[in-house]
Every structure is written in C-alpha cells, then in structure tokens.
Amino acid sequence: MSIDVLPECVGFDWDEWNSRKIWERHGVVPSECEQVMLNRPAVVVDDAAHSQQELRYYALGKTDLGRRLFVVFTVRRDLIRVISARRMSRREREVFARVERAE
C-alpha cells in the first residue's frame, strides 16, 4: 500500500557521511535519491519493522535516466532525510512495474 508523506516535505536534509556511504556501498548519488522522491510514479511504504526510534519509509521509484532505486528515508520536520539507497531487487522491480502499468 502506497502512502503519501512527500507533499508535506519542502526539501532534503543530507548528512555528508551517510551520502558518502550510500555512494561507496551502492553507487547511488544524492541527486538520484531526490529524483526518485520527486518523479512519478513512486511507491512509498512505511517501514514499521525498522521504525524503532523514528518513522521510516521506503520508496520505489526511478531517476530521470530511468534507473530504478529503492530508497529508505525518514521525515524530520518537513525535510526528507535519506538513510540508504540501492538498486531495486528483482522482486521490487516487479512490484514497481505493476504500479507503472496501472498509472
């Protein structure tokens, strides 16, 4: 089930260490994460299993160049703070494809 927390957000809150970690581990740059959050369709789901200290969400979406990414984030005040990002798994790509077809 997709939820829509993004309209409340006015920008991004980037942590230099975390954005460097995402690049080194998964080859994803901050601008790609931002594109996933801004482009449509995007599937946003709350991640209750990983929300012990704060509400976390994950998004399935694609960049301007069509790269399909899985992005974990939280919302602090009215800013999106990306926690992790990587290429979608095969199963995630299948879910995202169904959403794209339905649009």
Helix and strand content put the structural class at alpha+beta
**Quaternary state of the chains:** single chain
Query: Uncertain segments of ≥5 residues (pLDDT<50)?
Result: none
Count of the domains: 1
How many DSSP-defined strands?
Answer: 5
CATH domain class: Alpha Beta
Q: Which overall shape is indicated by the principal axes computed on the Cα atoms?
A: globular
List the helices and strands and how they pair.
Elements: E1 11-12, H1 16-26, H2 30-38, E2 43-46, E3 56-62, E4 68-76, E5 79-87, H3 90-102
Parallel strand pairs: 1-5
Antiparallel strand pairs: 2-3, 3-4, 4-5
Briefly, what is this?
This protein is an alpha+beta fold and 103 residues long. Helix content is 32%, strand content 30%.
Task: Describe what you observe in this structure.
The chain has a single domain (6-102), classed as Nuclear Transport Factor 2, Chain: A. 32% of the residues lie in helices and 30% in strands. The protein has a five-stranded mixed sheet. It has helices at residues 16-26, 30-38, 90-102, and strands at residues 11-12, 43-46, 56-62, 68-76, 79-87. The relative contact order is 0.23. It contains three helices and five strands; from the N terminus they run E-H-H-E-E-E-E-H. It is of the alpha+beta class and 103 residues long. The mean pLDDT is 88.
